[in-house]
């Protein structure tokens, strides 16, 4: 039977009214203490017709914070602040997962007051990171001890419990785009010689332990993970992509996760091969991060045919809060103003509306 974007889908017991997900996108609109705001509640509620919303990256600890003015899930006040967001989404008929994002070496002492950490004391080359005073060169991180690696894996589980307390339907571990999980997977960011580095089995160990701990904390059906095979973002270079991610997916298949979320950062043949390795539910984001063309309905339907179960859209959701209806009716899509992506305030955040049909002549 041919899958369609607009049919209902059972995601590990969570009924989605369609196969369209809103991909996680950082918007740096939180309070200075990492609190969610009323504007954030309105922003996500506007997009609640998505089958699933995956929130912007949420730091699981202060040490894990990458950018200024990003939200967290490591204090009671942060948990309470997120309840207005999840409540607004649910009141508008939506479902929302929190993306748990530990920045690892992609951070700065000016942001957190602490030296960033990573698998090894290797800075991201030729990379500027965001700080409260503007972009600065990526610092050399402190290499985690073997004991500390295990505790950082547990930080995802601790934040996941808080996410459920805050009303989220589940969590997605951010294993993509060169943040901490991706740094452990990387062959140039991870130079460890203990059990968390070197071989493929060593490099996937941190991701596997973080997922296993989170599953133990809140249940497999509430846990997903996002991956970007071969992306090389933030100078986290993957080698042996089919073997590396094939081994990781085989390990993750021991859990009945809610989903794996793949970005189309490798060639189609590789991604289709990974789909064969992964027996569970699959979300695909067809748009290359930072690429010139956002995903569209044609790309989405192509990936459904190739084995995806749900398609996530990122940039298309920014200026089109009613994206599901626009795709359904083949209506034109508005373009978001890139100058307002990370500027704070409601302009370019809450100022996009539903499609306006032309007045009758």
Automatic annotation (TrEMBL):
GO MF term list: FMN binding; oxidoreductase activity, acting on the CH-CH group of donors, NAD or NADP as acceptor
Cellular-component GO terms for this entry: cytosol
Domain of life from the UniProt record: Bacteria
Keywords assigned: Oxidoreductase
Matches recorded under InterPro entries: Aldolase_TIM, OxRdtase_FMN_N, Oye-like
Record domain NADH:flavin oxidoreductase/NADH oxidase N-terminal: where: 5-333
Cofactor(s) needed: FMN
KW Membrane (keyword) present: no
Pfam families per record: Oxidored_FMN (PF00724)
Stored Gene3D superfamilies: Aldolase class I (3.20.20.70)
Family: Belongs to the NADH:flavin oxidoreductase/NADH oxidase family.
The protein's name: Alkene reductase
The organism of origin for this protein: Nocardia mangyaensis
Taxonomic placement: Bacteria, Bacillati, Actinomycetota, Actinomycetes, Mycobacteriales
């Amino acid at each position: 039977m041919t899958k369609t974007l607009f049919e209902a889908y059972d995601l590990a017991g969570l009924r989605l009214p369609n196969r369209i997900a809103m991909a996680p996108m950082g918007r740096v609109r939180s309070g200075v203490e990492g609190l969610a705001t009323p504007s954030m509640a309105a922003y996500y509620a506007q997009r609640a017709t998505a089958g699933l919303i995956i929130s912007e990256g949420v730091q699981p600890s202060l040490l894990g914070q990458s950018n200024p003015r990003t939200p967290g899930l490591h204090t009671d006040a942060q948990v309470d602040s997120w309840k207005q967001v999840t409540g607004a989404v649910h009141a508008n008929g939506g479902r929302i997962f929190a993306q748990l994002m530990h920045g690892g070496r992609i951070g700065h002492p000016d942001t957190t007051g602490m030296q960033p950490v990573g698998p090894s004391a290797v800075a991201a080359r030729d990379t500027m990171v965001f700080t409260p005073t503007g972009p600065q060169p990526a610092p050399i991180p402190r290499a985690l001890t073997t004991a500390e690696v295990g505790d950082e894996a547990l930080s995802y589980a601790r934040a996941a419990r808080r996410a459920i307390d805050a009303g989220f339907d589940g969590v997605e571990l951010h294993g993509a785009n060169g943040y901490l999980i991706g740094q452990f997977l990387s062959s140039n960011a991870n130079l460890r010689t203990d059990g968390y580095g070197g071989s493929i089995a060593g490099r996937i160990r941190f991701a596997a332990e973080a997922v296993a701990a989170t599953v133990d904390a809140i249940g497999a059906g509430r846990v997903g993970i996002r991956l970007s095979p071969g992306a090389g973002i933030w100078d986290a270079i993957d080698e042996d992509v089919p073997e590396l991610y094939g081994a990781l997916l085989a390990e993750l298949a021991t859990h009945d996760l809610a989903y794996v979320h793949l970005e189309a950062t490798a060639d189609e043949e590789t991604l289709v091969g990974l789909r064969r390795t992964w027996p569970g539910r699959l979300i695909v984001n067809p748009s290359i991060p930072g690429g010139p063309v956002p995903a569209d309905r044609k790309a989405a339907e192509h990936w459904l045919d190739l084995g995806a179960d749900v398609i996530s859209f990122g940039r298309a959701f920014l200026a089109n809060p009613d994206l599901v209806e626009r795709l359904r009716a083949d209506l034109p899509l508005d373009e978001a103003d890139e100058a307002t992506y990370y500027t704070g305030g409601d302009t370019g955040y809450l100022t996009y509306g539903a499609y306006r049909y032309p007045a009758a002549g």
